[in-house]
Write a structure and sequence with these properties.
Helices cover about 50% and strands about 15% of the residues. The protein is an alpha/beta fold and about 350 residues long. The chain has two domains: about 100 residues, Arc Repressor Mutant, subunit A, CATH 1.10.10.10; about 240 residues, Rossmann fold. Strand 5, helix 13 and strand 6 form a beta-alpha-beta unit. The termini are far apart.
Length: about 350
């Protein structure tokens, strides 16, 4: 076989792919540096500040200067932080600080944490490729913390103005007083916000994570919320253990796709609703067909999250392993199978990551 000339489309495609991979390596380094900068407070300390030396920045945060200096070098190489070589000072331009710190509407540094967090279990995921099974939930000690930060930027800011109004009359019912359950509630930040906003309603949160439930309880006690309780609970048998017609509203926020038994949970949610009840679902916006996810703006990342957390955590419990990217088509099929036949699907302008389903029994 003769060598192809460099001008052929195949060679051009190979060159482009190589360039993409080199860029991905740099971007992977940037995500790790950004996560470190977020967790150490370095990014916030630089936001809106005059240029600082590495020593001054380290002293401000009580960090080791040698580590701060190396981190600054990486962020300069990534063209995130600027520097003046004559003075040895560094600064974070305001337009970048607005995207990487609490100064802006959305702090993208929060999402950078997913990559090193999930990378910490890579050896175990590789083992699962070879032996089967999954990585247990206990191997992700910071996952609830990161997810709470995620929902704090997607769900909470839109909860009262955009999400709850997707169901006409729901806000008024909450104001009058109804019973509300949030399944797979995590740390329960949405519940905490709703319990404070709607004191006449009663709220319950279930989650498998003892750590997340303890955090939610502590916050509820601090806020004096007597209309909210949390319970650590395995929902894999919820189809049989759910109390019939116990709630007028059930919610799940990004909580179905990593369940061990998602069908059973959905059937239990249907069982737990009153005849005039409502199920409000937020879950990942995707297709159930791989080729249709090519244009997804976060497709590769969300599949990586699925492989390294959501799917494998479910499989570790002997579950279905549905995965993050189960998709709208499969979600609709599962909801109908659970008994929901009046289903509306919505997307919010600010949220490219999620679909919102309004379901009635």
């Amino acid at each position: 076989m003769c060598d192809l000339p460099l001008s052929t489309p195949q060679a051009s495609t190979a060159d482009d792919f190589e360039a993409r991979l080199v860029q991905a390596l740099n971007h992977g380094g940037l995500l790790l540096l950004t996560s470190i900068g977020h967790r150490t407070g370095l990014l916030d300390a630089l936001a809106g500040q005059p240029p600082l030396t590495s020593q001054a920045l380290a002293e401000r945060l009580g960090l080791q200067e040698r580590y701060v200096r190396e981190w600054l070098g990486g962020m300069v190489a990534a063209e995130v932080i600027e520097t003046d070589p004559d003075t040895g000072r560094y600064w974070l331009p305001d337009e970048r600080a607005a995207l990487l710190t609490s100064q802006g509407e959305v702090n993208l540094a929060v999402y950078a944490q997913f990559m090193p967090l999930l990378g910490s279990v890579e050896d175990e995921v590789v083992r699962c490729f070879q032996e089967g099974g999954g990585v247990p939930y206990s191997r992700y000690p910071r996952f609830q913390e990161v997810m709470a930060s995620d929902s704090g930027q997607t769900v909470l800011p839109a909860l009262f103005e955009h999400i709850l109004p997707l169901a006409p009359g729901l806000v008024e019912r909450l104001e009058s007083g109804i019973r509300v359950l949030d399944c797979a509630c995590g740390r329960g930040r949405a519940l905490l916000a709703m319990a404070e906003r709607f004191p006449a309603s009663r709220f319950v949160g279930y989650d498998l994570s003892e750590e997340a439930i303890a955090w939610g309880r502590e916050q509820a006690e601090r806020a004096g919320l007597t209309n909210l309780r949390f319970e650590a609970r395995d929902l894999s048998d919820f189809d049989a253990s759910a109390e019939p017609e116990a709630f007028e509203l059930v919610t799940t926020f990004d909580g179905i796709h990593d369940q061990a038994q998602p069908r059973r949970l959905l059937a239990g949610i249907h069982r737990s609703l009153t005849a005039d009840g409502l199920y409000l679902v937020q879950d990942i916006h995707a297709s159930s067909h791989h080729h249709l996810d090519r244009e997804h703006p976060l497709g590769a990342m969300l599949y990586a999250v699925s492989l390294s957390h959501c799917m494998t955590v479910s499989l570790a419990q002997g579950g279905e392993g549905l995965g993050t990217m189960w998709g709208r088509e499969r979600a609709l099929a599962y909801l109908e199978e659970a008994g929901f036949h009046d289903i509306e699907v919505h997307q919010l302008e600010h949220d490219i990551q999620n679909d919102y389903f309004v379901c009635r029994p």
